[in-house]
Automatic annotation (TrEMBL):
Pfam family, one: Sugar-bind
SUPFAM superfamilies associated with the record: NagB/RpiA/CoA transferase-like, Sigma3 and sigma4 domains of RNA polymerase sigma factors
Name of this chain's protein: Transcriptional regulator
Organism: Subtercola lobariae
GO molecular function: carbohydrate binding; DNA binding
Sugar-binding domain span: 107-351
Amino acid sequence: MNAPVVETSGERTAEHSGGADASNSTEKRPERAAEHQVANERVRDALRAAHLYYMQDLTMEAIAAELHTSRSSVSRLISYAREAGLVEIQVKTPAERISTALQRVQDKHHVTVHVVPVPDSANEVDRLERVAMSAARILGQFFDSNMTMGIAWGSTMSAVSRHLQPKVTHNSQIVQLNGAANTRTTGIVYASEIMSRFGLAYGAYVQQFPVPAFFDDPATKQVLWRERSIRRVLDIQKHMDVALFGLGTPNSEVPGHVYSSGYLDENDFASLAASNVVGDVATVFYRADGSSADVPINSRASGPPLDQLARVSRRVCVVSGKSRMPALRGALAAHLITDLIVDEATVHGLLDE
């Protein structure tokens, strides 16, 4: 989402011109530097206004209140964003917004970071909704005809599914990555509603995965995994083009569905704590260093092994809230992410690395 860097002309001066010319050049340098800073600030403000208007559906009045300016100023910023080429089909981020520190994060983890502007005053629920809305708009760039997208159900994906933009595709399919049943419910209604929204938005065939989220016995899972009907779904998962997921964590301010809806009992939570688990993707748990192979509960989990997930060509992670920082760092350590859609406050935690 990189936009052209704003360049200003006429900034070079002749250092050895001598006499009055050299004196005048020296006097003009601070003035030109100030003009350059003002131009960059205008680009920054135009980008933010455009992102809030086009990606988050805020009204101009709401944007004016958030930016502490007038509605007419917001209108001019949005017009400038269009004229300057910041807005095409998507909101583009100019180079000035990608700091050197953020570029290091991208290079270190081999990820593309899509930063969603959210005011610091927003609570965790509103923050999630804003990030989910932007993720829904961005997602259309990644999914097209003749592609398969795997989706890990959860609170974040539920929020994303409510904001999807229709896009016509052909011969495409959506596959559920992990089962949703537990001892209280089959999970079919919850998971199928999320999957159906994605299928409807993209005109894609939906392949559900009607198995428990966690098996009581690993042996039962192994037996079921040998069934041809289940192997067919597992094979679709192995060949998906895009994986889309949020990050679960035991300590989030907005509890993930798997942690709050009867999927884990007291013994499970104790086991996760003993294993130093910081998060999960598709109900497969991992530690801060990204390791997951010897976490006991994973032998009973229905989600794909994380090393398999890491082989998918595009892996889109949607995350919001500082409470998910340990889970985000662990997912990056496990090389699970190629595209990260995240709010400003959360990404600042990565800049401190």
